[in-house]
Design brief:
Strand content: under 5%
Low-confidence stretches: none
Structural class: mainly alpha
Distance between the termini: 17 Å
Length: about 280
């Protein structure tokens, strides 16, 4: 996807569109993985309840996802290219950039990840929904009741789930890029089909394999327990079923945005080249 001196604009535009369109799916997955109580009795009713407005913390979530995914995907493509020019192998040059970048992005975003997750149904912060800046209200509450260190609760688990998710997605995308049959530059439909295949494969693989870590982090936010205690409690209460809790919604919330980012970046980059 990235040639010499790749342009970051298509990555940023693709990330922004993806984050905006898929926010309701992120909300649904977050509520499902966190186990927040729902009022609706039917399956359809529960789906509508988790996806409908109000979309609390949406501005923070969308802006955070936009810069984070753009940084990871652009940095991964450009970093891989630069490392290969320095003689690095395919595997290491593919894995190292998303590993390092996604780790730093997760640390920077963690306070806003935690506050956004809690806003989706945690009764501890129900007061924040009516404030002008709900995420900041949640962060102030955490600082006053638990100290500022609570902003970064679950950072280790967040890194453990986010870093592999993007390393896997980028690796699968690059693998598909190298192994899918090349297309004639004059066939736009073939190019779109090729982009769809690699984007879906990349997004799905990363999302499904890291779903248990998403559940673990969201339970930590809800209970203030450490990851080992949460793991033991979930295994005791739910057996191994918790590993797949919310996985279908996570596919929509995580696989769809990542796949959309890859696909739209291809399309925006292609369109920009045609107009240069």
């Amino acid at each position: 996807m990235a040639g010499a001196g790749a342009d970051p604009v298509p990555y940023l535009a693709a990330s922004a569109v993806s984050a905006l369109v898929t926010f309701p799916f992120w909300k649904a997955a977050t509520i499902g993985q966190s186990g927040y109580a729902l009022q609706a009795k039917t399956t359809l009713g529960r789906l509508w309840e988790v996806a409908k407005p109000p979309w609390r913390g949406s501005l923070v979530v969308v802006s955070g996802m936009t810069w984070a995914r753009a940084a990871i995907l652009f940095g991964s493509d450009e970093g891989s290219r630069l490392l290969q020019t320095q003689g690095w192998g395919v595997v290491s040059s593919t894995a190292v950039p998303p590993l390092l970048i996604s780790m730093h992005v997760q640390i920077a975003n963690q306070p806003f990840v935690r506050s956004s997750v809690m806003l989706q149904g945690d009764p501890q912060v129900s007061f924040a929904a009516s404030t002008r800046l709900p995420n900041l209200a949640v962060l102030r509450h955490l600082q006053q009741t638990k100290g500022a260190r609570a902003w970064w609760l679950g950072t280790g688990v967040g890194i453990a789930r986010t870093v592999p998710k993007y390393v896997i997605a980028v690796a699968v995308k690059d693998f598909m890029d190298r192994n899918l049959a090349p297309v004639d530059g004059t066939s736009s439909s073939a190019a779109i089909s090729r982009s769809v295949k690699k984007s879906i494969a990349a997004g799905m693989t990363g999302a499904v394999l890291t779903n248990p870590l998403d559940v673990l982090q969201n339970e930590m936010f809800k209970t203030e327990q450490n990851p080992v205690s949460v793991f033991k409690r979930l295994c005791r209460e739910e057996g191994w079923r918790w590993l797949l809790r919310g996985v279908e919604r996570n596919v929509l919330a995580t696989a769809l945005p990542i796949a959309t980012c890859f696909f739209l970046t291809d399309q925006f980059a292609s369109s920009k080249r045609l107009h240069v």
